[in-house]
Amino acid sequence: MQSKLWRIGTRGSALALAQAYETRARLMAATGAPESAFEIVVIKTSGDRILDRPLSEAGGKGLFTKEIEEALLDGSIDLAVHSSKDMPTLLPDGLAITAFLPREDVRDAFVSPVYHSLAEMPAGAVVGTSSLRRRAMVMRLRPDLKVVEFRGNVQTRLTKLQSGVADATLLAHAGLKRLGLGHVVSQVIETDDFLPAVGQGAICIESRVGDAATDALVAHLHDPQTGICLAAERAFLAALDGSCRTPIAGLARIDGDGLRFDGLILKTDGSEAHTIARQGAVADAARIGAEAGQALKAVGGPDFFG
Asked: Where is the Porphobilinogen deaminase C-terminal domain (predicted)?
């Protein structure tokens, strides 16, 4: 075990590195291997380089995974650590998601140096976000607010807030907690009011198909309940052909032997929204998600996201 150097690919943001370090720590604890058995390989992605326009205009979700996946395919790294919500539903041939770490908090956090909640903001106040989902949901709940584009990593967005670019922003509570920044949160928004992105709060591991040694290694990390929930959520997203270009939210939760799935699609300006709730057996997670996606696609019609 200790004779092999395992190369872990990741983006270079503080949050991405925190997720890679968590993965390494879990692997060390599970295998008894020393830290020196694992090399963190930082890979700059297109999404990190393109900061002058919304991701929806630049190419969508794959912008945060493309270069990392190329490194996996050419053998430069053995496994990749991703935020599950960044992962396209269709992966390159030869690659697969092989493990999910235990999921963190799925909720969105409202962050503002001025206001305590989204509801407290006065008409005309400015919310900054780079997420089409968050933009659409804010405009649905508070059409009297102004929403502006807000790219950059977590620290960059917090700096923009302090400099007055916006009065508030919305970030994943899980990411703030992983960065030790829980103290900046003004309000954690419940999922009944603000359904999260598919995969939010979950870290996934991607590796090469047929790489038995890496499969055996990352098996130590896999959380079955998270895997079941993500199977439903990713099937929902796939049924809707979802990407960063479409405002989609979805959340699966396990209760005993059952699974509940809630989904939402919105017009980009928040003017129209459709929700769905489905329940069934845990074993049917992927089918439940796919059927929910197909049902919403039928309700919205072919031009809904146009």
From this structure: 229-297
